[in-house]
Amino acid sequence: MVIWILGLNDMIRTRGLTKVYKTFRSGEFTAVDDVDFHVLEGDIYGFLGPNGAGKTTTIRMLTSIIPPTRGSAAVCGHDVISDSIASRKNIGFMPERPGFYEVMKAEDQLVFYGEFYHMGKRETHKRARELLDIVGLDEFRTRRIKTFSHGMRKRLALAQALLHDPKLLILDEPTGGLDPQGTAAFRDMIREINRSGKTIFLSSHLLSEVQQVCNRVGILNRGRLVREDTVANLRRRIGDHSESAINVRVDNIKPSVVKALESLEGVVGVEAGPEGVLVYTDGAQARSMEINRFLVGKKVPVTALYPVEASLEDVFLEITGGGGK
Amino acid sequence: MKDDNLQGFVAISKREFLSNLMSPRMAILVVIFSLIVLLGSFGFATLGSMSLSGFVPEEDVYLSAFYLDDDDDGEVDDLVVYAMNPEGEPQYNVTVQVLFSDDMREPPYWLHTDKEGKAVLYNTTHLNFTFMVFSGSDFISLAGAVSTLGYLEVQHNSTSLVYVSDVQDLTKLSLTDTQEMMGIDDPGITPGFFVMTVDQDGNPRSGVTLNIVGGDENVEGKTNEYGFYINTELKNGDYLISLDSDDGSEYGEWVKVSYTKEEGLADLFKDKTSDEVLTSIASFVVMIATLSAVILAYDTIVRERQENSLDFLLCRPVHKGTILLAKFLGVLSAISLPFALVNLGAVAIIWQVNGSPPTGQLIAVFVLGVIGLVAIWILLEMIISTLVKSGSTANLAGIGLWFFFNILYDVVILLVSGDINNPDLETMIGYSYFNPNSCFTYLISYVQASSTEFASDFIDAGLNGYNHALAMGVWFVTLLMLAYLVFKKKIV
Predict the structure, then answer these.
(1) Which DSSP category does A144 fall into?
(2) Fewest C-beta atoms under 10 Å: which of A267, B105, B124, B319?
(3) Shortest Cα distance from A130 to chain B (angstroms)?
């Protein structure tokens, strides 16, 4: 019996979560190694990591599909092993590669999954149609799934995850394989779902996705959780101890001005481009204002001036050993 | 929580049931199963009823055959055949097909009896013959013969009859020789001991006095005008048949009379009861039903794994064991429903054709036993389906297993049970527990045989159908537990 001491608004909390696979050929392989993290109610939690980092294995443990080798996890206060049915009732799960019964029609497929949650037949049909409308599949509800494109399958998978109105959505690589429009639409849907009060646990190897959608992030590398924080904090930490760049947008800038900029105090380099210049500084906070004042004094028509922030990619590469800028 | 499990169980089993029931492969299997089982039951039942009207003659025809040594050189020259009815009257136009059992490559020879009931095959050197008798247009009977000079044993509808031929020939036989006379307990056939006497030219000899001595019997008989004598009242025992020759010397032949049930070829389907017909189709049912289980269940798990739809089930509020059990029951009910209906259809056909239904106990054991057998095979397939990584491997393994248990296993058991023609039944029964198909067929045979007054060789050898029913139960429980453990272990 696992006794959980949870924060009032903890939706997921793991403690030493570990999954070890044993194979005949290569012996033991630790897919997830002693992972501790927590997801708060209302979060869009990005679970970030390169391919093979152990994200999907962690998710399969959270959804009670596979048992952990060691450690434990709780979803909405229910242990995923000893109280798996209760924890699963609170989860809407969208796997990376959703597999449906191909010969079924979209609405029938949702109704089938609805039968697991004590939903009445009429209620399930109504809910299925609502969700198909939300994910943009309303006109395809009587089409067999075998005729669906990859994007349509992803949307249907999201609909089935929302079917029983769960508190927590676990999305494994939700935009994987989608075109840019599809990806953008999906991210909008995720934000909208979050605004409706649902906590979202989003696994992705796409840094941009996590950066754009999530407020908190856990970074997994080779099975180990190497960082957990808010996206803003992580970016700030990179910015604290490295150079920063200031993007200056100008229509036309003379080479003499560029040279003069280079000689300013705190400026370590200047790159001229078609839309302006990128000024690398020592990172001191006052540099933006000084550069702006200098350019105005030289009567350079500045249209925009803003610091280039450290991206999550920088953070990720630094943490995972890929090196930062 | 139990409600959640139940809800999930109902959802999965319902989907599995409907999707399998409506699948094209189920339709194909049901058509094949129906054709084989319904036509098979009709065929067996019809054959059984035909044997009552067509195969058994209105009047028995007894064959007598003699060798003639025309030139007295001590070698066979001609074969003479007589056809008589039980009253000892010659039978005209009886067709006798003579097969040369000492040289099967030689084509058969056809003889037709004349008004004296006599047909002759001239100039033959063969010493062993088998006779097929055709009387009229629809009567076919088997007459077997093992012959030496002087006497001929002919089986007629499984009734072995001893012919005592001409006095001269009798002298060539040892007096200690015995022949068995067998009859079957069937009012359609008159088991009888008869003697026909002919002279050296093969013509009937009338008025020959016969003395039949043995046990408490001491009977004197006389051949009629056609040289024929019959006695149908002799009890089991050894008898010395003797007669006076023209020169006053006495010659005799020891005959063993034993009426026992023995089925000849013509009796294979003769007078089959409805129970026997239903039992006869059991082997077909086993083969098709188990093959259907293989074909329908081989991809139950592996397909869902390959198509990733299993995760959608595993993440629902339902236990793994429930998923497995629901899938199992869904497939089982999808197969059992149409197959049970077809089996009941077979029962109806047998009833219609034979005029009486099989016994209720046999019907119940048959229908439920098929369901039990299918359940065992579905579990076997589900285990394979969980262990392997592709549907084609699962299918191949399933077919292999089907081939092993349906064909190879019986051959192996026959080989290890001693003589193939006369295997040790106790050994066969012992090994049958390890084959679920055998468990079913032995169970059916037991239920059928135990409802008749005739003893079964297998029952004599210790066959007890309840043990086989228990063995099926053990198979089921063991495989169910194994399937659960494998599913729990492998789906990670």
Answers:
(1) B
(2) B105
(3) 20
